[in-house]
Amino acid sequence: MNDTTALATMGFSRANHVGIVTSNLDASIRFYEALTGKKAAPQDKIGGKRMAGVLGLDKALIRYATIHLDNLNIDLLQYEAPEPSKAQYANNQIGAMHLCFEVDNIDDAVARLCKAGIRLQGDPITFMEEDGLKAGFGTAVAYFDDPDGTHLEIIAPQGPFKRTGN
């Protein structure tokens, strides 16, 4: 068994959740509920010495809420202790990440975002040969941010960008 097979059999072939640290949990819940159409549940607090230790912190007290999508959970986290600081990063910075939502139709999704007052980072594009791809033509993408500046994307995948199965 090679290393890749061993990791896959251990469960590294599926994702459970993405955690997003927020400055205002209630505002983030409203944003992500409106964006996804899903309700946040559960909502709770977690903390203490053991939690701080696993996070590599001296102390930890976190208010959180989870939004269950069909294939991934979004954990919204508001740290009460230690006091959080704001991270800022551009899409091209090493370590920067984004969360991408798969949509059926980019135009409908963009219209929904605009109607909700969400500003795109730029105009949506549909990949063509001139973009340097060897495959995936017809895939459309757009980027935007949540209220705290977390980078988000929507994609209407085609070709090799389209997932098969779960």
UniProtKB/TrEMBL annotation:
<keyword id="KW-0479">Metal-binding</keyword>
<dbReference type="GO" id="GO:0004493">
    <property type="term" value="F:methylmalonyl-CoA epimerase activity"/>
</dbReference>
<dbReference type="InterPro" id="IPR029068">
    <property type="entry name" value="Glyas_Bleomycin-R_OHBP_Dase"/>
</dbReference>
<dbReference type="InterPro" id="IPR004360">
    <property type="entry name" value="Glyas_Fos-R_dOase_dom"/>
</dbReference>
<dbReference type="InterPro" id="IPR037523">
    <property type="entry name" value="VOC_core"/>
</dbReference>
<dbReference type="GO" id="GO:0046872">
    <property type="term" value="F:metal ion binding"/>
</dbReference>
<dbReference type="GO" id="GO:0046491">
    <property type="term" value="P:L-methylmalonyl-CoA metabolic process"/>
</dbReference>
<dbReference type="Pfam" id="PF00903">
    <property type="entry name" value="Glyoxalase"/>
</dbReference>
<protein>
    <submittedName>
        <fullName>Glyoxalase</fullName>
    </submittedName>
</protein>
<dbReference type="InterPro" id="IPR051785">
    <property type="entry name" value="MMCE/EMCE_epimerase"/>
</dbReference>
<feature type="domain" description="VOC">
    <location>
        <begin position="14"/>
        <end position="157"/>
    </location>
</feature>
